[in-house]
Amino acid sequence: MPSLGIRTLCLALALPLTLLPCKFTVRDVAFVDLGDPPFQLYTFVETSPQAAELSRLSAASLLDANVDQTIVRLDTDDEHDAESYLVDFQVQRFPTTILVGPDGDAIEVRLTNDDGGFDALAGRALESIVTSPTRRKLLDELSSRYAVAIVVEGESASANTTALRATDVAFAEIEAAFDKMPKDVGDLPLRIVVPHEARTSERVLLWSLGIDEDATEPSVAVLFGRGRRVGPVLDGDAITAAALTETLRNAGRSCECGLDRSWMRGPRVPLRWDATTRERAAKRLGFDADSPLVKAEVVGILARGAGRQAEGAKIDEGTLDYREIAIGDSPQQADGEVETEDEEELPSISKLFPYTTVVVVIVAFLSVLAGVWIMRSKRE
């Protein structure tokens, strides 16, 4: 019957769309800025000169970082909502600054030394909000690595050794499965160790990961993409090879898998992501994660899986300050390594969306068949 044939044809038209695999992995999605709420930095000052100087310092220190600053004038402004943090932290010395995370947690970053001077200290303090030795290493590696495991050592040498062994075993498991990944997922994962005595210099980073600066046990956090955490932070006895392997495996899964969408929307650490870093990431990924087309597709993917998302977050569907960048011939290398593989230019839109081209061709072909079918049905 013609009606039966038409129904069958409609199913055939829809079938190619359902069979197409997602061209992004969970790791790819982690490079896309989907409007994640930035960290809020409230800087409290008592005089106009302090306000002017700190505005100047912040403009340089916080450039290209996921941190928004508000300067609160205590001498002239009406009471600001953020002043409640001064009570919470029992602040007695100004100027000072309070960093508030997207989850509402806060940390004070002091801008003055014991004698009250802030000229030299303030610049270093503001820099510490968005950069540190570990985060500089992260920026060198995130674009090329599958993931980076940060091992924060505790006081016990034996517990630290156990944590390091767990990451070794997990890394070996991932290496054995690398050939089965749905697409290229970068180089093998890397481990960065934060010695126990270096916790103070990594204070802001540890806070943003939910790791207590004064903790005595080791902790492990896995980061990927644009400095986004994947999976939970593991502490002490919870640091096992099985737990780390599960986290690392999820990072390489297809974005259309049944994985809870919250794994793709893990919290980010305060970090600079400038044009050079973005260029390096685009070269390695083969697509520009800041492209509106890429963002729109990822938004659709996350929306389709919204029912599986444990901790929903609003996704900004706008262009989010998208800017085209020119891709140079010599990407910056990490730790002085020399790139041995030839870099290719970023693909065109037709290369970036090969499945879309396939769909268009298939639909066009089947549309012709549909027309022929209808004409024959009318004649009969």
As a percent range, the share of helical residues equals 40-55%
Radius of gyration of CA atoms, rounded to a whole number:
25 Å
What is the CATH T-level topology of the domain at 39-129? Glutaredoxin
Q: Which structural class is indicated by helix and strand composition?
A: alpha+beta
Task: Tell me about this structure.
The structure is a single chain. With 380 residues, the protein is of the alpha+beta class. Among the domains are: 2-17 and 356-379; 39-129, Glutaredoxin, CATH 3.40.30. 41% of the residues lie in helices and 12% in strands. The strands form 2 sheets. Strands 5, 6, 7, 8 and 9 form a 5-stranded mixed beta sheet that branches. Strands 2-1-3-4 form a 4-stranded mixed beta sheet, covered by helices on one side. The radius of gyration is 25 Å and the shape is globular. The N and C termini lie close together (10 Å). 33% of the residues are buried.
Defining key terms:
globular, 13 helices, 380 residues
Write the layout of secondary structure elements.
Elements: H1 2-19, H2 26-29, E1 39-45, H3 48-61, E2 67-73, H4 84-88, E3 96-100, E4 106-110, H5 119-130, H6 133-141, E5 148-152, H7 157-177, E6 190-194, H8 203-209, E7 219-224, E8 228-229, E9 234-235, H9 241-251, H10 275-285, H11 292-304, H12 349-352, H13 354-379
Parallel strand pairs: 1-2, 5-6
Antiparallel strand pairs: 1-3, 3-4, 5-7, 7-8, 7-9
In short:
The protein is α+β, with helices and mostly antiparallel strands. It has helices at 2-19, 26-29, 48-61, 84-88, 119-130, 133-141, 157-177, 203-209, 241-251, 275-285, 292-304, 349-352, 354-379; strands at residues 39-45, 67-73, 96-100, 106-110, 148-152, 190-194, 219-224, 228-229, 234-235. The chain contains 13 helices and 9 strands.
